[in-house]
Amino acid sequence: MNKRATLVYEGVKELDRSRTYKSLLSGETGEQIRAILTISWHDDWRFAQDVCFKYARHTDYSVRNIAIVGIGHIARIHGAIEIGSVLALLADLRHLGHHHGSVEDMLSDIMVYVARQGRREI
After folding, report:
1. Which structural domain, as residue segments, surrounds residue 116?
2. pLDDT grade, residue 95 (50/70/90)?
3. What's the structural domain count of the chain?
């Protein structure tokens, strides 16, 4: 019998700092993924960026991948990102062997929503 993974869409929840940060530190992959997305959408962009940069180096591929997606969300939603930190992250990701479309998507979001629009590029 062929088993297929079932994908379930969940909207990004509003930020409840206490619950979100507890989920982030829970060690449970699904909870961490939801927390990273919530933080990247709703929290202060600098704090969100720090969280995403930290979790983009996580040992779990799914957590690492969603943190990379989160960096793209920060660029798109908040219009700001620290380019030097992104370049350092890219070097780390190459070392970790992370060559996925999410990296290209992140860079595209930074180019479109930060660099080309002359927004807050630090």
Report:
1. 44-121
2. confident
3. 1
